[in-house]
Design brief:
There is one protein chain. The protein has helices spanning about 5, 10-20, 25-35, 35-50, 50-65, 80-110, 120-130, 130-135, 155-165, 175-205; strands at about 65, 75-80. The chain is mostly helical. This is Yip1 family protein.
Length: about 210
């Protein structure tokens, strides 16, 4: 029986709302769908990955500075159309690379922790589990409100709840699995942020600021 007859596709909005508001039941549904990585990427991750670059670009050009994030990652760096475009491209491509790399890493870590699945399911776990992170990009419309992006930390809970149903990680090892994957995600995020700052510095150094 075709997958779509068992679990019809949700719209992006419906899936995002379901994974955030009722993650336990939605992870069970996603596990039953068992869709290929390419479909999850094209129909969900790619569209949502555009939110932050687009909103940050509009916010930067409107307010004259770029909101990178919260706390030590927040930096009101003056911007130009060239630096904004460069940063948007870096963040978009960096986000996709980070999610793909994190999915492969999560698959390996899951196996190491007794998990029974990987591959497409690992990408689905990371892709759907990153929903709060991707949606939080909307706050970049107003750089001074970038600290509200901390709501993205809800993604840690989604990862924790999805590890067992998606990858078969034993319940007693889910916490350790989550900590390891979140640590890797944090490192990747810092790298992307540093690349955007480097882009700004290079643009300024070239006299294009």
């Amino acid at each position: 029986m075709p997958v779509d007859e068992i679990a019809p596709r949700r719209s992006i909005a419906a899936r995002a709302a379901a994974i955030v508001l009722s993650p336990r039941s939605e992870w069970a549904r996603i596990a039953a769908e068992d869709r290929p990585s390419g479909e999850v990427l094209n129909r969900y991750v790619l569209p949502l990955s555009l939110i932050w670059p687009v909103c940050a670009s509009i916010g930067a050009l409107t307010f004259g500075h770029f909101g990178y994030g919260a706390g030590p990652l927040s930096d009101p760096t003056p911007v130009t159309p060239v630096s904004v475009l460069g940063s948007a491209i870096i963040v978009f491509l960096g986000t996709l690379f980070s999610l793909l790399a994190l999915a492969m890493f999560a698959s390996i870590v899951a196996r190491h922790h007794g998990g029974t699945h990987g591959g497409d399911r690992a990408f689905a776990l990371i892709g759907y589990g990153s929903t709060p992170v991707l949606l939080a990009g909307v706050v970049a419309l107003v750089p001074s409100l970038a600290w509200l992006g901390l709501v993205a930390l809800y993604g840690v809970r989604l990862l924790y709840l999805g590890a067992a149903p998606m990858l078969g990680v034993p319940r007693e090892k889910v916490l350790r699995f989550t900590v390891v994957v979140v640590a890797a995600a944090t490192l990747l995020n810092v790298i992307v942020v540093m690349m955007t700052r480097l882009n700004d510095a290079l643009i300024t150094g070239m006299g294009m600021a």
